[in-house]
Amino acid sequence: MPSYDPKNIFAKILRGELPSYKVYEDDKAFAFLDIMPRAPGHALVLPKAPARNVFDVSPDDFAHVMGVAQRVAKAAMKAFEADGVTLQQFNEGAGGQVVFHLHVHVIPRKTGVAMKPPAAEKEKPEVLARNAKKLAAAIAAG
Ligand code: 5GP
């Protein structure tokens, strides 16, 4: 398996070299909105420590990220009046991974509404800003 590449786009977001629509941060994890959401409020949860995917992440960091994903999922149910939430986590190209810093997708779902295909459409900045504010507030309240 290739080693971790610190030039990946999420590493740049974590270092503050690129902007993001942040919804949550603690000492070990960071969460922000996907700019090509598969549904409104689609968020990504990352460990701060470098990890390419499930194969090299430390069990502690992976457990922490899943705990944060659980918290984001509960908040997303309220913030987006969702009927359910889909969690996804892809590993290596064959597993569907495109960006090689481990991340968990948290996708709010409405009954009967299909997810958009991956990376189908870049959302408008004002919509992302509004959704990030709503989700961040619900996470902080939960
Ligand atoms: P995966 O690696 O799990 O297949 O998916 C990578 C995800 O990152 C995709 O859902 C894609 O829409 C998202 N993505 C790609 N580039 C950016 C970016 O620059 N900023 C944000 N916030 N998301 C991105």
Model description:
- The protein has a single domain (9-137), classed as 2-Layer Sandwich (HIT family, subunit A).
- 31% of the residues lie in helices and 18% in strands.
- It has helices at residues 9-14, 59-79, 125-141; strands spanning 22-25, 29-33, 43-47, 84-88, 104-109.
- The chain has a five-stranded antiparallel β-sheet.
- It starts with 8 loop residues before the first helix and ends with a helix.
- Bound molecules: guanosine-5'-monophosphate.
- Guanosine-5'-monophosphate binds next to loops.
- Guanosine-5'-monophosphate is lined by residues 9, 20, 32, 34-36, 90, 96-99, 103, 118-119.
List keywords for this structure.
binds guanosine-5'-monophosphate, 142 residues, globular, five-stranded antiparallel sheet
Summarize the structure.
The chain has 142 residues and is an alpha+beta fold.
In the sheet with the most strands, the strands line up as: 1-2-3-5-4
The unreliable regions are none
Ligands bound here? Answer: guanosine-5'-monophosphate
The CATH homologous superfamily: HIT-like
CATH architecture field? 2-Layer Sandwich
Q: Tell me the fraction of residues in β-strands, as a range.
A: 15-25%
- Quote the average pLDDT: 98
Count, helices: 3
- How much helicity do the residues have? 25-40%
CATH topology heading = HIT family, subunit A
Please report the distance between the alpha carbons of the first and last residues: 38 Å
Q: Domains counted in the coordinates: how many?
A: 1
Q: Which structural class is indicated by helix and strand composition?
A: alpha+beta
Number of strands: 5
